[in-house]
TrEMBL record:
Superkingdom field: Bacteria
Zinc recorded as keyword: no
Protein's GO biological process: xylan catabolic process
GO molecular function, one term: alpha-glucuronidase activity
Classification lineage: Bacteria, Pseudomonadati, Bacteroidota, Bacteroidia, Bacteroidales
Keywords linked to the UniProt accession: Hydrolase
Domain spans labelled Gylcosyl hydrolase 115 C-terminal: 734-849
Domain Alpha glucuronidase N-terminal: 41-137
Protein's recorded name: Glycosyl hydrolase family 67 N-terminus
InterPro entries referenced in this protein's UniProt entry, alphabetically: GH115 (IPR031924), GH115_C (IPR041437), GH115_sf (IPR042301), Glyco_hydro_67_aGlcAse_N (IPR005154), Hex-like_dom2 (IPR029018)
Amino acid sequence: MQQITKTMKKFLFLILMMLPIMAMGADIFRIKNATIKYDKQETLQVKRAIGDLQADAERVTGCRPTLSTKNVRGPQIIVGTYGKSPLIQKLIKQGVIKETDLKGKWESYVLTVTNEKEPRLVIAGSDTRGTIYGIYDISERMGVSPWYWWADVPVCKNPDVAIQISGDYFASGEPAVKYRGIFINDEDWGLKPWASNHFEKELGDIGPRTYAKVCELLLRLRANMLAPAMHSCTGAFYSHPESKVVCDSFGIIITTSHCEPLLLNNAAKSEWDSNRDGEWNYKTNRETIYKKWDARLDEAAKYENIYTVAMRGVHDEGIRGNLPMSERVPLIEQVIRDQRELLEKHSVSRFARDIPQIFVPYKETMDIYENGLKVPDDITLVWVDDNYGYMKRVANPEEQKRSGRSGVYYHLSYLGAPHDYLWLNTTPPVLMYEELRKAYDNGADRYWLLNVGDIKPMELGMQTFFDMAWDINAFDFEKVYQHQAEFLARTFGHHTSQLSVLSSQLQIILDDYYRLAWSRKPEFMGWEYQWDDKAHTGLKPTEFSFEHYDEAQRRLADYQRISDEVERISSELRAESLEFATAFFELLQFPVQAACQMNRKFLMAQLNQLLAEKGRFSEANWAARQMEEAYDSINALNRRYNKQLNGKWDGMMALSTSFTNTCQFYQKPEVKRFEGAGEKAVLLTPLRGRSAIDCKVIDLQNCQHASEGTRIVHGLGYDGKVVQFGDPSKESEDGALEDIFYWFKSPNCDSVDIIVYTVPFWPLYKGKQNRVGVSVDDSPVQVFENKFKEYDRTWKDQVMRNGAVCRLRFAVNKNHPYHELRLAGDPGQMIQRVIIDWGGLRPSYIGPTI
């Protein structure tokens, strides 16, 4: 008996030891030699995506899986859509899939691995796009990046690749935002010349071949809609009939910009020509415009669309007719009634309320809306940022009750006043999260549209945007701050076992990249305004100071440091794989080094002028040559981008010359040269310890105490961190403001100036405020409210420097050794820098650093 017991114990021990191995084996599915099985009834869109899965598996394993709609033996990848696939219904009955994870769900999917009888990997979608997202999820788990084509991220060969589902079962849940997409815009200097002269040379335009690549990228990013390119340089989307067919074959919804009502692009001569069609004026030319819309819906209504209602002027102009507001409001209401009448006419057994529609209160249309325009309750209100990343407003409590809910139109790229920024992606992910989260928390969960310019080089911003749109609750300030570094580390960390080390290195680079561009985007370094401000045209010296606080020197040194760091990482990648180094160049190295050289170009030109004025001619000559080298480096970087990979992206990367002669940042600034003076290098190393005299910069992290909701947010501000006074969407129960307290050493004077730099947010909605309060010791609180009007000089200056500045004076008792500084603000307000000045603050752009 004792012997049996010992034997049983050994047996049980072996069983227990095997359990983890058995469990591990149960949720692993090897891709190689698997058959992809699906039902004939599947939609064409799912079948097309299955073809991508087949190709992705071959990219990774080297073997192309067989496709089958019949019973097969051996390992199987089963793909199906709820309600269309008998295979999925059978698996539900068998208990392999939970019906509640699919039935009635929007764009959801389930992944599961089962080894009963034969190994099976199941991809089940609640609807067509849900199934497609499940397919691309498996592709990404295999090692195929969504950016394998658009950013040339290599696919690592792995014949033994296996899919492991945690707990054997994964249910995606529904996306946080129902409609998620991009607007291809301002394509004149990138996507259009690239497509016309290279990718779709036979068409000479952006057409179906380009849109096929765009649609695939969108689906891999779990997006579902596209607003096509619409500038007059590009053929209108519907002028190439195959384009809409291609987008539909992917399952992508077509939407349009704020200035394309009912899918009609009046910026294209093929769609609206004033010589042929008359004035774009609904009051005087209603019949012609109505017929145009009628014809467009007759062509397009059978496809999946989201329709822009109301109307503006031609392209991005205000409504035509010079009408007073009392006439504009009823006219636009009539436009919307007529548009909904047409939608019902062209929709089979559908009421207008069941057809997705958006109203975009953009620019002057916001004024019309706020002057009483009645928008039907089922239409989605799409709130806009001010083109520079700050939401102009979000839904108020009454608007949040609308059945159509609300949405967001947000910019990573912009062409317009006060200055274009089309070249590089410099919008901090933390700002994007703050503004989109604010909108989402106030009802903007129906529609998110991102203006991405030419797509390249906005890849990192797009990745963050769509990850948030899919599951915004997976993010907070810390996670969004780390998101892009972690994404890049996963993308390029194949060569290292120390993924966290690489992520930390990339985080440091991204921190400085976004911080430096926060105070001035590379495109703004010429200090010129554009479009509607003739008094401020032409290149000018920057306001960064070489003489005070080493401000310009620090900027040059910081840019050079991260430029050297991306070069180092690139060299390490190149030693492992030229392909990975190429992708790294596109995603991070190019933006960092291009920004560095643009700053170097303008700051060295400024230094040249400064040295020339001081009679230091040989040093001025050196600075002039530095400017020339920076200018040449920018052109070399653009050329490398376009010519690498045998010219795959030829024509994509260029500095836009804009539509106005006031945009000159791409040019050489003027410098002075002195013959016979030779050259002498200037030591530009910033010196520690001479940052501030007779003034003090408050270390925002080093507070004495703070109210519960006040927090430090990293990834924003002139110093890479800001103080935020609570959640912008939440009021305190007793109405008290959130606050934070600091101590500072008493200066030998009777008064101090407190200079506060805030982030230039708009009020949440009408009735809300942007107030910041400051007090010293027991003094009354002095309140600063940031009031501005879009396109006035104050607003222009604030969006170009990402900051508003106020100076407040306080009496202090110089006999006290320390003083208490209290900062407070309305919910959501952010302070990015505080300087205490007792007479020593010198002229500079953003002041001394800590």
